[in-house]
C-alpha cells in the first residue's frame, strides 16, 4: 500500500494491508492532530479497507478499548468515518470505513507526517528543554521489549 503522497510503502507485520502502530510511534506526539491523539492513525488504518473495532485495536496497541471507542464515536459524529453493520456478523458486528471527508484528510496527514519526521529531533529537544530537565539529551526510545528500534523516525508505519 502506498500513502497518499505516493512515496511511503506500508507493510504490516501481520501480513495485511493495515498499518500497525507500535507503542514507540511518534505520530501520536505530533503537534498536528486530527480526531485527537489517535484520529490520524485510525484514518490511516481505514484508508485501504473498512475494519472492525478489534482489528483497529490490534493495530493501535497502546490505545485502550474505551479511548478507541470514544475516538471512533467522535470521528463518526464529525463525519470522518462511517459505522455500519456487518452482514452475517454476530449481533453487534459493525465495521468502520473512511468517509469522503475522512479520505480528504489523508494528504494532510501525509504532509504532517513528513513534517513531523523532518522535525522530530527538534520537537523532542524542545519538549525536553521545557520539562526543566537536565542538559542531557532525551533518552533513546525503546520498544515495549526494551530494545532500541532500528529507526525511531520510522517506528510507525509510513
UniProtKB/TrEMBL annotation:
Question: Per the record, which residues fall in region Disordered?
Answer: 125-158
Gene Ontology MF term list: DNA binding
What is the scientific name of the source organism?
A: Streptomyces hoynatensis
Which residue ranges does the record assign to the HTH hxlR-type domain? 25-124
Q: Does the keyword ATP-binding apply?
A: no
InterPro entries per record: HTH_HxlR, WH-like_DNA-bd_sf, WH_DNA-bd_sf
Which positions make up the signal peptide? none
Which domain of life does the protein's organism represent?
Answer: Bacteria
Q: Where are the transmembrane segments?
A: none
Alphabetized, the UniProt keywords read:
DNA-binding, Transcription, Transcription regulation
Quote the protein name from its UniProt record. Answer: Transcriptional regulator
